[in-house]
From TrEMBL:
Species this protein is from: Intrasporangium chromatireducens Q5-1
GO molecular function: oxidoreductase activity
Matching Pfam families: ADH_N, ADH_zinc_N
Name assigned to this protein: Oxidoreductase
Organism superkingdom: Bacteria
Annotated ranges, domain Enoyl reductase (ER): 10-323
Amino acid sequence: MQAVLMRTFGEADVLRAESVADPEARAGWATVRLKAAALNWHDVLVRQGRYGSPLPHVIGADGAGVRVDTGEEVVVLPSLWWGDDESAPGPDFEILGDHRWGTYAELVRVPVDCLAPRPAGLSWDEAAALPLVGVTTYRGLFSRGRLRRGESLLVLGAGGGVATMAVSLASGVGARVVVTSSSPEKIAQAKGLGAAGGVLYTEDDWPDQARALSPGGAGFDLVLDSVGTWRDSLRCLRHGGRLVVLGASRSDSVVLEPRPFYFGQYELIGTTMGSPRDFAGLLALMDGNDIVPPPISATYPLDAAADAHRFLEAGAGFGKVVLTQP
């Protein structure tokens, strides 16, 4: 099979298409002939060596294709061996593409319980773009964040995969959604997914501007923070609100004042990825509501994975970047 093989860690040019052996059959596992594989920022971190992946290595967590043994059209859940405790992943948990070869290939082998039918109405590109950001966002908003119809939500960073998914899911179930972005164009695109409005986080007073867009200016019920700006996020919450944290793309450390935090009765909730049960909840939610499919920012052929990574890292796109198969 053809695969994008990484023989060393580094910049995007370490990703090169090569011919490698097909995955071998294994009890309890299935091989999927991929139609598309979506990129995630997590892939960039794996490429940089942040997760100590074995070399040579094929990265990639997201994919959709045809199950070789049955002919079923499936999507791949990249959350492996979550465990029996829904509150947090168990000690054997890993993400597909971290230590086992992932989806930047014509074929991928995964545990059978990590496959689900391709959702009706989604193209191959949209289906491939769904699993990681979908299950991560569903868990953050609903399993952990307890978002309900009629509540208000602030989503930080309008253009990324999690952010665009959050706008689609939350607005689809009847929440009022506001976004932040560095670009008026991305705010306009977020409105196309169901957001009520947005503010530019490049302006110093953006938390005040965002709060002014919350119901009655009292603050949001929930803030979804994938960037790590907790202090500013807390300023956007109503008293008793919930801050859900699932990333740290702009900050590796945070200093919080304890008294305003506990007097505000805030909740700080950490989350990442999601379980098979979360994924089933996501698919059921999409089936029962008018949810906008994941927006696709750009597509590249498999052998142009390095170019796809450069596009992703430039941050100019809105939505997901996808590798397609002929």
